[in-house]
TrEMBL record:
Top-rank EC class of the record's enzyme: hydrolase
Name used for this protein in its record: NAD-dependent protein deacylase
Chain segments annotated as coiled-coil in the UniProt record: none
Keywords recorded for this protein, A-Z: Hydrolase, Metal-binding, NAD, Transferase, Zinc
Annotated Pfam families: SIR2
GO function term, MF aspect, one: histone deacetylase activity, NAD-dependent
Residue numbers binding Zn(2+): C138, C141, C164, C167
EC number: 3.5.1.-
Active site annotation, chain numbering: H130
Amino acid sequence: MSKGGIQGDYIKDVAQIRKIIKESENFVFFTGAGISRESGIPTFRDKDGLWKKYDPSKLASRTAFISNPKLVWDFFYSRQRLVCQAECNDAHSAIERFEKTIQERSCWVITQNIDRLHQRAGSQNVIELHGNIFGVLCIECGKREQYNHDNFFNNFSEEKIPICTSCNNILKPDVVLFEEQLPPDEWRQAVQLSSECDVMFIIGSSLNVSPANTLPYHALKNQAVLIEINPNVTEMTSIMDFSLRESAPNILSKIFDLV
Ligand code: NAD
């Protein structure tokens, strides 16, 4: 196996990965913003990423929301508009097809993304570590409501901050902002699945955000095969069994259409 990966020479790697897939039972796809990039949704930390233009502490932190909810909502409304117009790409679809073909074996997507594109592609087993952009949460009474890309803007107007129908307080996008904890049930399940998997695909994540970026270590403790799909080197490339320096839609179609 190629620890750290062989740049530009992925044909041999793909053949080996396909063999490993045939012999394995439990799969986890751990995904980040890069998987949705070709759907037109910018990542955070690439050269054209959102955090190169905006300050996350002013737009996506708990403190920012409490001090200026209108500014935070303006930012999220613009992202919701973008995601409404986006379509899932070949990477989301390849994972969904794989999930269908492996029958009794276990296959889960654990995503840091808030765009719901895995669900739109048809994936059934999706754990959202950071919530999603079409959910709203009342910060006072805790009431939650879930919408989707088809109906979100039928219910909310970009002119106003949404208000809770139960207690009249302001609603927050039901995503995990900086300074907030991950949802405990989802996190527990993600750790368990990672600790039990035989193969973990780590796709389109810079692996900069903690604690999500500890999941590959849980998989490693189970001696899982770690397969990174990312055009760029990441914080954890050195622990990977394979690093395929390719765009996710391109390489995932190659791996799974042949399995
Ligand atoms: P990140 O911006 O830190 O890293 C993105 C990674 O994707 C980079 O390593 C980059 O090299 C890689 N990449 C770029 N294009 C790619 C492609 N075509 N194929 C494969 N990989 C590609 O994003 P992250 O690691 O997911 O950071 C975590 C945070 O980002 C989470 O909090 C998440 O909620 C948030 N986020 C989500 C979305 C979304 O829902 N689509 C978008 C932006 C950020």
